[in-house]
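Today's session is about reading a structure prediction critically. Students often jump straight to the picture, but the first step is always the sequence itself: look for stretches that repeat, for charged clusters, for runs of hydrophobic residues. Only then move on to the predicted structure, which in these notes is written as discrete structure tokens rather than atom positions. Here is the chain we will use throughout the hour.
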Amino acid sequence: MVLGSTTIHEDVFREIVRLVLEEVEGVYSYEPRNPLAPLLGEKSVKPAITIKWPAPEEENQEQLAVEVRLAVLYAAPIPLMAATIRRETAERVKAFTGYDVTAVDVYITKLIRFDKDKTMEDEAERPTEQAQSDEHEG
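Below is the predicted structure for this chain, in token form.
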């Protein structure tokens, strides 16, 4: 047998998690295609994935924790989504890399809502047209 070491870069773990997130219904991700989008006020909305390693003095170095910050679609079942993300992340990281996942912390940072008349609207940033018309009527 030939001896040697294998090092898996942090980006590989992030990519595994990103692929899991692509498959979970209700997770929202948007990347503008127009190169002038930032100048026009269009923002990208992408999950932020952080890999947390054990302290160097800990025994098992082949383990990690994951932190995911993401936007979800309005009316998505958040508890079910978070459970799916946790389970799939742990299973795939273990299957592909051999590393154990000790925790997957899921933070929902935005709620995205689509209106009939508009392409995208963020519930937290702007009220809906219906809510605006209700305010003017009362």
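Discussion point for the tutorial: The beta strands are 27-28, 48-52, 63-73, 100-113, 121-122.
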